């Protein structure tokens, strides 16, 4: 899932919550003078957990989450409503629900965790699982490097806890850390309840990253170990939520811990390349990973978001459908490229056949088409010489508006809208607004066109990210219109 939630609690208005952090650290700091190193570490962790719990509760209240909330699918806004509680999946398998699930497998020689959730929810998830078993955590397996899967690692891990992840985990974590300010701004556009970057307190216990795996597995590699008579297999499965994806398999019970391998919802069309921006996710590697997992014959799939899926036959059929859908979109895109179709033509033309139909609230077929195209052929589409130079079309919009005249362009935009061509309306409106940012007619047309697209998204594929983007643009447009109307 997303790194968007890692900044959830950072807001200067939450003075009381932040004071708790300061007080907890001061108290812990005073005690460290009188206790040994191990005890000091314990005191510090407990103080941080108390502070985190207060901040996490405030964060949940801020965006409307409550203990009675439900999440129907894996959007960030939906998942924060999910109550934190323990579900028993099997005799020795327990799942602490939340934005990201924390899954515990108990054994007579210590426990194994799969993913550690979002840091803001760590105190409650940790307490919930410790109420089931307070045995030491022998191993933590991290499905990938996103913040809602690794956030609680340092709090769940003991001195001797082993951490297993993919060979690419450290590299993926590195670039996400380096680009955190840039990605944060993109994410905040989609999730406006996030505070501004410069308003966040820089609290060490809430920072993303800094995890160093003790053992790694490579692509399509298996690492097996046995603990307390329970056999565990960690498998490298790239191409899903990133290059560093792993899953965990319990062969004796036929339980697959999938992380985000299938996305937050199973089954669904995967996010072959996420709109919010990350490294490319390779489609054929994902198909190979699905081929790698299907022969296991999983009877239970336990994801790191939402609830488990049961039933070998249905799980196998759904995995096959996901695999064939990705293969189909990939092959149709490649065939279209070879036949001379443009990327935009293929985005319009390629649809899943009925037998491969999947929900697209997370990944979207037309975006996958464009991602596959760019993955193979990169940014230069051989369509215009201007693609080669750092002079975007927007730089001539104001001059075009001056020559064509705003009145004629507004009329053209309105006609496009009447014809049902909302995107063309937006193209023309952007030209007008480049010359006249306060043109109320153009802004009103922009608002109407965005509303048409939002209505289509909400009543069509219901893709979360498309909906959040359109809502953010509508909010921006409304604010600009209000600003104009309030002028003297």
Short key terms for the protein model shown above:
46% helix, globular, Metallo-beta-lactamase domain-containing protein, Metallo-beta-lactamase, Chain A, membrane, 488 residues, Serine Threonine Protein Phosphatase 5, Tetratricopeptide repeat, 2 domains, disordered N terminus, 17 helices, alpha/beta, six-stranded mixed β-sheet, 13 strands, single chain, protein dimerization activity
Outline the structure in words:
One of its GO terms (molecular function) is protein dimerization activity. Residues 99-305 form the Metallo-beta-lactamase domain. Keywords: Membrane, Transmembrane, Transmembrane helix. Pfam families: Alkyl_sulf_dimr, Lactamase_B. Strand 2 and strand 3 form a beta hairpin. This protein has 17 helices and 13 strands. It is globular and about 80 Å long. Strands 1-2-3-4-5-6-7 form a seven-stranded mixed β-sheet, with helices on one face. It has a six-stranded mixed β-sheet with strand order 8-9-10-11-12-13, with helices on one face. It is 46% helix and 12% strand. The chain folds into two domains: 4-284, 4-Layer Sandwich (Metallo-beta-lactamase, Chain A); 390-485, Serine Threonine Protein Phosphatase 5, Tetratricopeptide repeat (Alpha Horseshoe). The longest helix is centred in the C-terminal third of the chain and has 28 residues, at 312-339. Helix 13 packs across helix 15 (422-435). It is of the alpha/beta class and 488 residues long.
Q: Considering the protein shown, what is the CATH homologous superfamily of the largest domain?
A: Metallo-beta-lactamase domain
- Summed over residues and divided by their number, the pLDDT gives a mean of 88
In the CATH hierarchy, the third-tier topology of the largest domain is known as: Metallo-beta-lactamase, Chain A
Write down the secondary-structure element order.
Answer: HHHEEEEHEHHEHHEEEEEHEEHHHHHHHH
CATH architect. name of the largest domain: 4-Layer Sandwich
Shape: globular
Helix count from the secondary structure assignment: 17
The parts where pLDDT drops under 50 for at least 5 residues are 1-17
The SS-based structural class is alpha/beta
Question: Taking strands numbered 1, 2, ... along the chain, how are they ordered across the largest sheet?
Answer: 1-2-3-4-5-6-7
Helix percent reads 40-55%
Radius of gyration: 25 Å
- Biggest β-sheet: count, sense, barrel? 7 strands, mixed
CATH top level label of the largest domain? Alpha Beta
Separation, N- and C-terminal Cα atoms? 46 Å
Strand content: 5-15%
- Estimate nothing, just give the exact number of structural domains: 2
Number of strands: 13
Protein name: Metallo-beta-lactamase domain-containing protein
GO molecular function: protein dimerization activity
Pfam families: Alkyl_sulf_dimr (PF14863), Lactamase_B (PF00753)
Keywords: Membrane, Transmembrane, Transmembrane helix
């Amino acid at each position: 899932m997303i790194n968007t939630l890692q900044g959830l609690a950072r807001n200067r208005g939450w003075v009381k919550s932040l004071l708790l952090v300061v007080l907890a650290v001061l108290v812990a700091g005073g005690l460290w003078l009188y206790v040994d190193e191990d005890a000091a570490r314990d005191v510090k962790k407990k103080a941080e957990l108390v502070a985190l719990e207060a901040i996490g509760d405030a964060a949940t209240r801020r965006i409307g989450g409550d203990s009675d909330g439900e999440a129907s699918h894996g959007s960030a806004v939906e998942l924060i409503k999910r109550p934190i509680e323990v579900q028993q999946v099997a005799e020795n398998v327990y799942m602490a629900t939340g934005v990201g699930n924390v899954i515990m497998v108990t054994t007579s020689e210590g426990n194994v965790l799969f993913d550690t959730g979002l840091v803001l929810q760590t105190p409650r998830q940790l307490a919930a699982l410790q109420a089931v078993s307070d045995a030491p955590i022998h191993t933590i397996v991290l499905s990938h490097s996103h913040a809602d899967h690794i956030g609680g690692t340092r709090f769940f891990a003991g001195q001797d806890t082993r951490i297993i992840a993919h060979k690419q985990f450290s590299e993926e974590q590195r670039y996400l850390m380096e680009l955190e300010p840039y990605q944060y701004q993109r994410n905040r556009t989609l999730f406006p309840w996030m505070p501004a970057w410069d308003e966040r307190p820089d609290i060490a216990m809430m920072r993303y990253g800094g995890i160093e795996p003790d053992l790694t597995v490579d692509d399509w590699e298996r690492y097996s170990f046995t603990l307390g008579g329970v056999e565990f297999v960690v498998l490298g499965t790239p191409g899903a939520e990133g290059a560093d994806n792993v899953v965990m398999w319990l062969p004796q019970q036929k339980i697959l811990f999938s992380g985000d391998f299938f996305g937050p919802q199973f089954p669904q069309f995967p996010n072959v390349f996420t709109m919010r921006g990350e490294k490319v996710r390779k489609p054929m590697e994902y198909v190979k990973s699905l081929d790698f997992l299907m022969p296991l014959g999983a009877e239970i799939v336990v994801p790191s978001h939402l609830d488990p899926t049961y039933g070998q036959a249905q799980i196998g059929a759904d995995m096959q459908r996901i695999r064939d859908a990705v293969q189909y979109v990939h092959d149709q895109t490649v065939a279209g490229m070879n036949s001379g179709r443009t990327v935009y033509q293929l985005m319009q033309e390629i649809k899943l056949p009925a037998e491969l139909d999947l929900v697209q609230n997370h990944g979207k077929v037309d975006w996958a088409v464009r991602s596959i195209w760019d993955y193979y052929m990169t940014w230069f589409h051989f369509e215009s010489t201007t693609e080669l130079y750092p002079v975007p079309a927007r730089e001539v919009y104001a001059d075009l508006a001056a020559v064509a005249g705003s009145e004629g362009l507004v009329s053209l935009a309105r006609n496009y809208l009447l014809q049902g061509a909302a995107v063309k309306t937006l193209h023309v409106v952007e030209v007008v607004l480049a010359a006249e940012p306060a043109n109320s007619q153009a802004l009103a047309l922009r608002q109407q066109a965005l509303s048409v697209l939002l209505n289509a998204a909400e009543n069509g594929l219901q893709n979360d990210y498309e909906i959040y983007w359109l809502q953010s643009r509508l909010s921006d447009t409304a604010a600009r219109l209000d600003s104009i109307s309030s002028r003297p």
